[in-house]
Write a structure and sequence with these properties.
alpha+beta, Dna Ligase, domain 1, Aldehyde Oxidoreductase, domain 3
């Protein structure tokens, strides 16, 4: 790479990923223009050149970015989550940059579009039915098979996802999902999509997550994570991710092949892909796929080559630099997303030093702030923090993460004030 080039990074205030991408850009000597949805009134306090955006208005935000970067040597536009990948695709199209098509970004953003594309292309995925949250829940319950899973069209990280085993539990989940989607901040995301939801067949089996990189439509698997905890409902709070996978080589090849089919069905062809799959009775079944990197701070469990982060790998790919030679570092690694056990206000955190002292633990990041109001799944959208571990084997990583978690204690006031 000759000279300094510029990357546009789109990161909402709710994402954890922005800082790691910025750090990777510094290591590569790349200039970054930030676009975010921070308070527009305080825009003068932002870094020089930052662009205040409204990600619930992707077309208007894309035009604003294109105008702001006119005359600059833009190498790539990177969206960090579901709210930003659509805007990123629109900007890349306008600037003539290599990127996923806008139609693909629309498909990964809307779970109903995603399911329809999978169904048409024969990608293994759950049977589904779209419904309006303004419908009578007892009427919808008569149209589904049990067990089933209710989920919103737009949200991520298992937010709003609930299992129902019979009509009464379906009606309870329906009412709860309706209350969540009635929140003003969610209705602003998409007034139409926020009034709709999906019900899908529940797929039994273990769950895995694949982290990959697409180049000209070809999938390179960067990591395959096992999820050792049972994710059978009624909610689907993810906790442990451990890599490399302990699944057999044949199963791993089937997971990769199914993910590649899913990417083609969605039209994803360039950049990162994160996919969630269930190992059903007849093989891997795609639950979700996204044109972005893994959520939260989970990417910090991954290192490539001589300690290169996932974000730097993605930036190198976007800049056209060599990434084929950057293999995952040896050994095993993993992350625990620390769940919120109850609603309330966080008063104190105990045992951080004890958790850090557990053999194999590389990091303890408590992202919740003292005094912060906490909300668990299925309504909540965050975690208390993250634990990171590295060891010789996946079993040792899993053990370290579970042990470290037992050392932590969170004082949470029961009533939010």
């Amino acid at each position: 790479m000759t000279g300094r080039r510029t990357v546009v990074l789109l990161a909402p205030t709710t994402t954890y990923r922005g800082e790691d991408f910025l750090a990777a850009a510094v290591r590569l000597g790349v200039d970054v223009i930030q676009g975010s949805d921070r308070c527009h009134v305080l825009a003068e306090q932002w870094p020089e050149g930052a662009i205040p955006l409204r990600f619930d208005e992707p077309e208007a935000s894309a035009r604003q970015i294109v105008d702001a970067v006119a005359g600059r040597d833009i190498a790539s536009v990177i969206g960090t989550d579901e709210r930003t990948v659509l805007c990123a695709a629109m900007v890349a199209r306008a600037l003539g940059l290599r990127h996923n098509p806008v139609e693909a970004a629309l498909a990964v953003r809307d779970k109903h579009r995603m399911r329809e594309r999978f169904w048409r292309k024969g990608v293994p995925s759950p049977r589904f039915l779209r419904f309006s949250i303004d419908d009578a829940p007892q009427d919808v319950a008569q149209r589904v098979a049990f067990p089933c899973v209710l989920k919103p069209l737009l949200l991520s990280a298992s937010r709003g996802v609930m299992r129902a085993d019979d009509p009464p539990s379906f009606i309870r989940a329906f009412v709860r999902l309706r209350a969540l989607l009635d929140r003003p901040e969610l209705r602003r995301m998409d007034e139409v999509a926020s009034r709709q939801a999906l019900v899908e067949d529940y797929v039994p089996g273990e769950e895995v997550a694949l982290e990959g990189l697409l180049h000209d439509g070809e999938l390179r698997v960067l990591a395959l994570f096992d999820k050792p905890d049972d994710l059978c409902g009624p909610f689907f709070e993810e906790t442990l991710y451990v890599t490399p996978s302990r699944k057999s080589p044949d199963v791993q090849r089937a997971i990769a092949a199914t993910t590649a089919r899913a990417a083609r069905a969605l039209g994803l062809c360039e950049g990162p892909i994160h996919a969630e799959l269930r190992l059903g009775p007849h093989g891997p079944v795609v639950i979700e796929a996204a044109g972005r990197t893994i959520g939260g701070l989970c990417s910090r469990a991954l290192r490539f080559g001589a300690g290169i982060s996932l974000e730097e790998l993605v930036l190198r790919h976007a800049l056209g630099l060599d990434v084929a030679s950057l293999a995952p570092t040896s050994g095993a690694s993993g992350v625990m997303m620390i769940p919120i056990p109850q609603a309330g206000v966080l008063k104190q955190v105990h045992g951080i030093d004890l958790a850090r002292a557990v053999p194999g633990i590389e990091g303890v990041e408590i992202t919740a702030r003292i005094g912060q109001a906490l909300e668990p799944l299925p309504e909540g959208s965050a975690y208390l923090g993250f634990l990171f571990a590295r060891a010789e084997t996946p079993g040792e990583v899993e053990s370290a993460l579970r042990t470290a978690h037992t050392k932590l204690r969170f004082d949470i006031a029961h009533e939010i004030t």
